[in-house]
Amino acid sequence: MIKAVIFDFDGLIIDTETPSYMAFKEIYQGYGIELLLPVYAQCIGTSFQLFNPYTYLSEQVEVDMEEVRSKFKRDYALLLEQSELRPGVVEYLINARRLNLRIGLASSSSLSWIEPLLTRYKIAEYFDTVQTSDNVKNVKPDPELYIKALEALEVERKQAISFEDSLNGFKAAKAAGLNCVVVPNDVTRHFEFADYDLMIESMADMDLEELIENINVKNRLIN
Fold this sequence. Notes:
Number of strands: 6
CATH superfamily of the largest domain: HAD superfamily/HAD-like
Mean pLDDT: 93
Low-confidence stretches: none
CATH architecture of the largest domain: 3-Layer(aba) Sandwich
Order of helices and strands: EHHHHHEHEHEHEEH
Number of helices: 9
CATH topology of the largest domain: Rossmann fold
């Protein structure tokens, strides 16, 4: 029986990942270099430990790193201003509350990044726990964030559904033993996900109750 839902943040609740990739891609183009999505994808849903776009650029061409960082920050902020909550997010949060589900957030980003955006979009009140990079030693694809969220929500792994948009996040959720629903964005829909419990193009495409029933049926068939 499902008792909790745990959401990723970047790329899932708000598509912050497409603006980030586009901002870096434009910077690279300014130096005559193409930043391929499969290369950049290594850092989607995790930190810059697996792939650092600043370091990768400096290894190929001489750059003024302060200038590069300033340009990214400026361009990314402009693109992010145009971003809205992804379709269906608010409805899922409202319905999760109505169904008396525990609601968590598990993100590889820092609380200082997430908190202002939760406030800006008026959804902070929905979350019973917010687990970020500040709470763990290892971010996704390591399962630690999800394990912390499960502990805080006081539910077992198979009693929770995770919602992810990236491969790194998906790997973290499955490593923690959770049911995982993949909701790809414009960047991550080109990736190859395998062994997910369910994939939907948008949370607006399926009511939360229907989604939970699909997961429950799948689990009953397996068990």
